[in-house]
Design brief:
Blueprint: E1 10-11, E2 19-24, E3 27-32, H1 43-57, E4 64-69, E5 74-76, H2 84-87, H3 91-109, E6 115-119, E7 122-124, H4 126-132, E8 136-140, E9 144-146, H5 158-179, E10 182-184, H6 185-190, E11 196-198, H7 203-216, H8 219-234, H9 241-246, H10 254-265
Parallel strand pairs: 3-4, 4-6, 5-7, 6-8, 7-9, 8-11
Antiparallel strand pairs: 1-2, 2-3, 9-10
Helix pairs in contact: 1-3
């Protein structure tokens, strides 16, 4: 049975809303659900995304979070331009909107739980920014990625740029921002914007297998690895003695003992996150 089966699942938010989340066992799924606008993101959607990711980040029972779209045509084309006149018409409004948007992106970026983006169709602007904060970006072969904000006269702020620069580097980001390049799936994979690309009809199963692989591992080790990698890639200061000491905390966990016993007995480990 797929790890995304709705059987026995518990809905954290109303599934009629433009953003909702479902929590089943060790897995939570955040769904962008505004298909009539291809998931163009409104300020209220940013608020719901922030609520969802911050709530889930504090759930010690979770081992993986997936973010996907309910729309076959798009992950998201970015922020809803129809809303700009009332919430981004000048610098003051844009700053307030930006704080909400950037707080949400930072919450995804710093989530301690592995996050997988399932990308189908259009993934542009803010849609790409959300995906770039995730640990895995698995896409259908017909997806398109880019950020042609030059055509709107917009500037990507530092919190939007950082994850993209970490992924793809300066040259690729400048291609998107200065030339307005829109990459197909193969190009995006080559440029490291994506983790893997699969045929459209295999996307859900591929994501499910990836999630299953993550969930089967020791959850505390996954969280530590995320923390350590983020530290090494975002902070050039020397590792402190306290940080180095934390590398060995895993040896006092029940999961470590379970893993060693299972390896020696040639059985699959069942980790408890303790």
């Amino acid at each position: 049975m797929s790890v995304f089966s709705s059987t026995g699942s518990h809905s954290l938010q109303d599934e009629s809303e433009p953003v909702y989340s479902v929590h089943q066992d060790y897995i939570a799924t955040i769904v962008l659900n505004r298909p009539e606008k291809l998931n163009a993101i409104t300020s209220s959607m940013w608020k719901r995304l922030h609520q969802a990711i911050t709530t889930l980040s504090g759930d010690d029972s979770l081992r993986c979070i997936v973010i996907r779209s309910s729309c076959a045509k798009a992950f998201s084309p970015g922020c809803d331009i129809d809303e700009f006149a009332k919430c981004r018409s000048d610098k003051s409004q844009a700053q307030a909107y930006g704080r909400l948007m950037h707080d949400t992106l930072n919450a995804f970026w710093h989530c301690p739980i592995p996050v997988v983006a399932e990308i189908r169709g259009i993934c542009i602007g803010a849609g790409l920014e959300i995906a770039s904060t995730c640990d895995f970006r698995i896409a259908s072969e017909t997806c398109r990625l880019g950020a042609p904000v030059k055509n709107l006269g917009l500037v990507m702020a530092y919190p939007e740029l950082e994850p993209l620069l970490q992924l793809a580097g300066k040259d690729v980001v400048l291609e998107m921002l200065l030339e307005g390049k829109i990459f197909n799936a193969d190009e995006a994979l080559q440029k490291r914007l994506l983790t893997r690309v699969v045929p459209d009809d295999q996307l859900a199963d591929t994501v499910a297998r990836t999630v299953s692989n993550i969930v089967s591992g020791a959850p505390l080790a996954a969280r530590w690895h995320k923390k350590f990698i983020r530290r090494l890639t975002t902070d050039i200061s020397p590792i402190t003695p306290e940080e180095y000491d934390e590398c060995f905390d895993c040896f006092d966990t029940e999961d470590f003992r379970t893993g060693c016993r299972s390896f020696l007995r040639h059985i699959h480990p069942v980790f408890k996150g303790k």
